[in-house]
Amino acid sequence: QVQLVESGGGLVQAGGSLRLSCVASGLQFSIYAVGWFRQASGKEREFVAAISWSGGTSNYADSVKGRFTISRDNTKNTLYLQMNSLKPEDTAVYYCATNAYPASNPETYNYWGQGTTVTVSS
């Protein structure tokens, strides 16, 4: 049974930082690209960042470039998202998901976690 479990969300003031984690089980994590998506209340799910199976390629949404960093540790089956300089508009539920390549289209992702909530206060 494939499981992706996100953690690290919480309440933070604008300008602060959080580090999200996503632990995978039930699959060979090291052969998958993985991505982070987010969904704010009343809005569609949107791409945040993605990373290739090796970690050698990463992509970011323009809205988070320079503030967020995606990384992975294949020895721990874990994906990370370091979020700095957080803004109120970053408030959302954050999800991790797996894919064959680090795409931005959520329709191409297969396995999804349940999400972790990030709230940024102004």
Task: Provide a descriptive summary of the structure in words.
This protein is an all-beta fold. It is 0% helix and 48% strand. It has strands at residues 3-7, 10-13, 18-25, 33-39, 46-51, 58-60, 68-73, 78-83, 92-99, 116-121. The strands form two sheets. The chain has a six-stranded mixed β-sheet, with no helix packed on it. A four-stranded antiparallel β-sheet has the order 1-3-8-7, with no helix packed on it. A hairpin with a 6-residue loop joins strand 4 (33-39) and strand 5.
| Main pleated-sheet profile | 6 strands, mixed
Structural class: mainly beta
Number of strands: 10
Low-confidence stretches: none
The coarse overall form would be globular
Proportion of helical residues: under 10%
Question: Which sequence of strands runs across the widest sheet?
Answer: 2-10-9-4-5-6
Q: What would the average pLDDT be, to the nearest integer?
A: 97
Q: What is the rounded Rg?
A: 13 Å
**Terminal Cα separation, in Å?**
40 Å
Annotation field: number of helices: 0
Approximately how much beta-strand content do the residues carry?
Answer: over 45%
H/E series? EEEEEEEEEE
